[in-house]
Design goal:
- The chain is mainly β.
- It has a domain at 1-16 and 35-49.
- The protein contains no helices and four strands.
- The strands form two sheets. A two-stranded antiparallel sheet has the order 1-2. A two-stranded antiparallel sheet has the order 3-4.
Length: 71
């Protein structure tokens, strides 16, 4: 993935129970009770071993399947 300022490499994939844009909430407050998962590249899992004990982490996502939008 090439972005201005450098090259990024995905370290995992975020999975959602939503399979199409129809019915998918666009704001977090409308998604209460919906659970997604994060799948980390097994080669990089060891780098996350010290996350135990933290309440939160920040995920920076690239929405590569969002399709076109108009504002």
């Amino acid at each position: 993935m090439q972005l201005d300022g450098g090259t990024w490499r995905a370290i995992g994939v975020v999975h959602s129970p939503h399979k199409s844009s129809q019915g998918t909430p666009i704001q977090p407050n409308k998604a209460k009770g919906i659970t997604g998962t994060v799948e980390i590249d097994p080669l990089l899992e060891r780098g996350l071993s010290d996350l135990d004990g933290f309440d939160y982490i920040h995920l920076i996502t690239w929405l590569d399947r969002a399709g076109s939008v108009s504002l």
